[in-house]
Amino acid sequence: MRILIVEDDLEAAEVMDRGLTEAGHECVRAPDGEDGLTAARGGEFDVMIVDRMMPRMDGVTMVQTIRREGDQTPVLFLSALGEITDRVDGLKAGGDDYLVKPYAFAELIARVEALSRRRETGSVQTLLRVGELEMDLIGRAVHRQGKEIDLQPREFQLLEFMMRHAGQSVTRTMLLEKVWEYHFDPQTNVIDVHISRLRSKIDKGFDKPMLQTVRGAGYRLDP
Amino acid sequence: MRLPRLFRTTPFRLTLLFLALFAAAASAFLAYIYLATAGEATRRTDEDIGREMRALQAAYERGGVNVLNQSLIERAASERPFLYLLMTKDGKRISGSIEESPVEEFTGAPARASFSVTDIDVNGRARKHPARGFQEQLRGGEILFVGADISEDQAYVLKIVRALWGAGALVIVLGLLGGLLVSRNVSRSMAGLAEVVTAVRNGDLEARAHVRGTRDEFDELAEGLNEMLDRLERSMAGHRHAGDAIAHDLRSPLTRLRARLETAYLDVEAGKGNAEEALAQALDDTDGVLKTFGAVLSIARLQAAGQAPDQNIFDPAELGGDMAELYEPVCEDKGLDFAAEFAVDLQVRGNREFLAQALANILDNAVKYTPSGGAIMLRVRRRSSGEVEYSVTDTGPGVPDEDRERVVERFVRLENSRSEPGSGLGLSLVAAVAEAHGGRLELAEGPGKVGEMGPGLRVALILPRAA
Description:
The complex is a heterodimer of chains A (223) and B (467). In chain A, the strands form 3 sheets. A 5-stranded parallel β-sheet of chain A has the order 2-1-3-4-5, sandwiched between helices. In chain A, strands 6-7-8-9 form a 4-stranded antiparallel β-sheet, with helices on one face. Chain A contains 8 helices and 12 strands. Chain A is of the alpha/beta class. In chain A, strand 3 (47-51), helix 3 (59-68) and strand 4 form a beta-alpha-beta unit. Chain B has helices spanning 10-77, 151-201, 217-269, 275-305, 316-333, 352-369, 426-436, and strands at residues 82-87, 93-96, 111-120, 126-137, 143-149, 312-314, 337-342, 348-350, 375-382, 388-394, 440-445, 457-463. In chain B, the strands form 3 sheets. A 5-stranded antiparallel β-sheet of chain B has the order 2-1-5-4-3. A 5-stranded mixed β-sheet of chain B has the order 7-9-10-12-11, covered by helices on one side. A two-stranded antiparallel sheet of chain B has the order 6-8. In chain B, strand 1 (82-87) and strand 2 (93-96) form a beta hairpin. In chain B, helix 5 (316-333) runs parallel beside helix 6 and helix 6 runs antiparallel to helix 7. The longest helix of chain B is centred in the N-terminal third of the chain and has 68 residues, at 10-77. The radius of gyration of chain B is 52 Å and the shape is rod-shaped. The two termini of chain B are 58 Å apart. The A-B interface holds A 82-85, 88, 102, 104, 154, 180, 182-190, 193-194, 196-197 and B 287, 290-291, 294, 301, 309-310, 322, 325-327, 329-330, 333, 351, 353-354, 356-357, 360-361, 364, 367-368, 421-422, 426.
């Protein structure tokens, strides 16, 4: 993936660059919103990571500008401003996701990869297929090797999210945000419990486990 | 030269403006009254003189100059207020009550004149009276003058004029005095408010405006100002408190982290430690610090704001259902019996995200402290007071009565909970969320002691009725 990193903290940008490059992505860096805007206009990027508070031009203005110009590249806002209103501002300005500083690197990679996937699957799908797993979004039915799996509504949503991001790491925070739509950090392992229930339904009785735990990050659904 | 303070005030300037307008209106009014009264008096006198003149002419028509003379003498001797003079064609006085005609040159055409007559009063003093009269030539050529003393009329008009002037002066003086009084009053109230503003500007946040209890707009303004200052003071205190809290609360975990890193470093240097393990531990510690930081920041921001942002009206049972759905598997996993009960048709006003976090914190605690085999119950109901209450009851060890207030404070962890992970911020955040919604947090004993378990804890998040 080609990723544009717009971040004024050079050290932070460097760390991000290195980490993403190691994860197999190509990174371009811009130290502020204006340079970011020039870079965004010039190159084809799969994802942009944009800091909110920067000199010369802030991230929100930059993203508003590229959105006005018709650029639909997914944008991940990265900000120390983590209040609910800040998130809303960022998403309203055209951001697709919002990550609050300080963040865990695994979280950043998971979110960046999830964003690129969302772009590819822009068209309306009625059937999701990952390996042996099949999800009928209209009939709300799930089958593995032709055998029907009975899921509760929330388990269905959880699996749908995992299937849409198959092969990618998905963090607990992302699941809480995207499936339950909450932005807090529960102290107990609520998400783990829900995942383990889902796992027992889709993996139990089959020889190959599909739902993997990714140490230090979260989960991944493998074909 | 600067005018005295009072004269520079807006109310006083307004008073002057109104006074000027009023004076102009009053002058026009007075002028009209003067013209109406004085003119009327002159016209009446002229009519009277005209009537007298016609009566005398009628006598002349009847019997010539002799009868006229006779009538004139009779009339002059009577109590009539008129002055008469009958002259020959060439202006020689025949008879009458005045010596000569005030009309200086008589051409034959009727003429009128204003003049003065001298009268001797009871004290022997000569007094001049204003008078006016007409002069006409009779058919035989004799000249007849009839006049009247108009001093009384004029005195009357003068009286009116004087009264009008007096009234005008009185109006101006009273207006000025009233204006001064009102201005002083208003200025004093304004000065009081201005003093408060100055005091606050100079850093005294405790200054408050005096409310006189008159329920006028100044009281309203003073009350509004005081309310604003109260909020400002609370908010400032909140911010100050937040800063102190963050500095204080993060010092100990950061010190711990530093100590651990130092020990690990020394160990690795000495070749006896495991660097990877130390790094993993440090990462965990950092996450802990960040979590604490996040919680402290949320609490501090909520307390400083005094009100949760983005409040909406929603059905509390719906949020309760969401939380039940989120936590039921967790309870089952731990071997806890979970039950939920939601009253229908309720409404609360609040920030759903914050309330969800508060409920999650309460449920987290319940799950954490209730031993397996226990039970947890989540309830949403309306209190008789109309308030909406979320309550979580567990069968854990509970919190002793004397500690219930304390556990809500930041970083307070009771002895028997030290073995469990946690920052001691959970309930503080719940309390902050409750307060930011105008509600409160109540801790009470749970269902009581059952076998080995209990007495349990009942945590209630009470929200005011949605207006």
